[in-house]
Amino acid sequence: MLGPVILAASRSDKMRRFVSAAPGTKQVVDRFIAGETVDQVIPIVKDAAAKGLEVTLDVVGEDITTVEQSHAARDAYLELVGRLKELGLGERAEMSVKLSMFGQALEGGHELALANVRPVVEAAAAIGTTVTLDAEDHTTLDSMFAIHEELRKDFPQTGCVIQAYLFRTEDDARRLAAAGSRVRIVKGAYKEPASVAHQDKAEIDKAFVRIVKILMAGEGYPMIGSHDPRLIAITQELARQAGRKLDEYEFQMLYGIRSEEHVRLAAEGHRMRVYTAYGTDWYGYFMRRLAEKPANLLFFARSILTKG
Fold first, then answer.
1. Is residue 110 part of a domain?
2. Among 74, 118, 152, 184, which one carries the catalytic annotation?
């Protein structure tokens, strides 16, 4: 029951100040956040590539309140694309973007977010990689899917994310599982009401499996975002039943979580992509990682107690 409380705290300025000032915070943040700058994250991309891994890079910071901030977010991603191009890493690294960071919640936000994300998608395509649109809370999804559909007209490799805990997602999965699509399925990490989302973990897991089955039976490219060994094993079996080869789907896991499993799956021949976040505005991302798994919260609590 701690998850919803932590998610609520992710929107609290008072809690943000407390967590930022806590003596053990940096130790735990460093576990989940790869760095604050492009220069700090590039060695991690290179290391992942040397291990046979791929990455998706997320410049953290969803709490945009001005148009100028949305333009700065766009420019941060364009800087990232430029560095990947310089180093020839485009084929090993894609990007994940949250449209809230591109101004989606501002007045005229749908058009603003589309205008900001389009040059990033275009630049990514020019270096041989792509962009995946992350899913956020349920009120933003119709806009996200509409932007995804618009971008795919010119950049069909543009991906999107769906969340197993939402009741709508099975229908979304059927619609999206078409030829050429790239769809990441995750459980979901936002506080959602019972009117739109499963609240019970077992029900969320069942929904996750049903959705993976839909994606595997479709013509698109499924991207499985989970650290759960049982769900990974089920996914492998569903892929086998669907006749999929190992390069016809991929697993995705978060930077800093189950790193040995990243390497193991890659060694077995699976495509394994590490979701790697970086940047200075880490608070919202960090709190969702704590909410997802009690062990993360315990690790944080122990860090505070031992560093205080």
1. yes
2. 184
